[in-house]
Write a structure and sequence with these properties.
Helices cover about 40% and strands about 20% of the residues. The protein has about 250 residues and is an alpha/beta fold. The chain has a single domain, classed as Metal-dependent hydrolases (TIM Barrel). It has an 8-stranded parallel beta sheet with strand order 1-2-3-4-5-6-7-8. Helix 8 packs across helix 9. The chain is globular, with a radius of gyration of 17 Å. The protein starts with a strand and ends with a helix. Bound molecules: nickel (II) ion (NI). Nickel (II) ion binds next to loops.
């Protein structure tokens, strides 16, 4: 059985969430972890987590929320961290893809949430885009563990994160023809990897361009199975084990 360690499941994207959950079960996905990463989606994901037994959540403010996240919203986040379905904080981090105009705000927001992760001893799910060095330098200041969501860096960067106690989130990108991610997976091995879809985004081949869903996790598992020449059941077992350990799902 597989675990999708990172997806977004909003009513505006998926009209029929019952169907998504049903299809997950039919395709061997035992658990999914939904990321609520804006004020609105945190509220929505909390509601979903009450409704579905095999759905867990991470909550936290994405760097794109840096300008709109005030103290009240941070207090709201903190008030939900002891909820038993909340298994981590994220996705949080830094994103300079559209510029560094709000760099300071992003860093403040990131560090505030890392402090919460330390305080409540929760793992973090990291979003880092065009910001590798700053992300690493900030993470080094805190005693946290977690997942580098949608990892897309070099082997060298992968090794730095792993040495800091992080797992790499590998998703649909590994099925893309122009991706070099396979080199990282071959190099670091299954021990440091968890699977994720980031649905509704980043749909794996051959469904690229269509809406993504957790039910496609086995495609990513198959791809890694072929790359490493390991049975797909073994890929499922080891990556699910890694996910259960980091999020304390057992
Ligand atoms: Ni995401």
């Amino acid at each position: 059985m597989f675990i999708d360690t990172h997806c977004h499941l909003l009513i505006e994207d998926y009209k029929d969430i019952d169907l998504v959950i049903k299809e997950n079960r039919e395709n061997g996905i035992s658990k999914i972890i939904v990321s609520g990463c804006s004020y609105e989606s945190i509220i929505e994901s909390l509601e979903l987590s009450e409704k579905y037994e095999d759905l867990f959540i991470t909550i936290g403010y994405h760097p794109s929320e840096a300008k709109t996240t005030d103290n009240n919203r941070l207090l709201f986040l903190e008030s939900k961290l002891k909820n038993k379905k909340v298994v981590g904080i994220g996705e949080i981090g830094l994103d300079y893809h559209y510029g560094k105009e709000d760099e300071k705000l992003q860093k403040n927001l990131f560090e505030h949430q890392l402090k919460l992760a330390e305080k409540y001893q929760l793992p973090v799910v990291i979003h880092s885009r065009d910001a590798t060095m700053d992300t690493i330098n900030i993470l080094k200041k805190y005693k946290v563990k977690g997942i580098i969501h949608c990892f897309s860096g070099s082997i060298e960067t992968a090794k730095i994160y792993i040495s800091m106690g992080f797992l790499l989130g590998i998703g649909g990108v590994i099925t893309f023809k122009n991706s070099n991610l396979y080199k990282v997976v071959e190099n670091v091995g299954l021990e440091h990897i968890v699977l994720e879809t980031d649905s509704p985004y980043l749909t794996p081949e051959p469904f690229r361009g269509k809406q993504n869903s957790s039910k496609y996790i086995p495609i990513i598992g198959e791809k890694i199975s072929n790359l490493l020449n390991i049975p797909v059941e073994e890929v499922a077992r080891i990556t699910s084990n890694n996910a259960s350990n980091i999020f304390d799902l057992n």
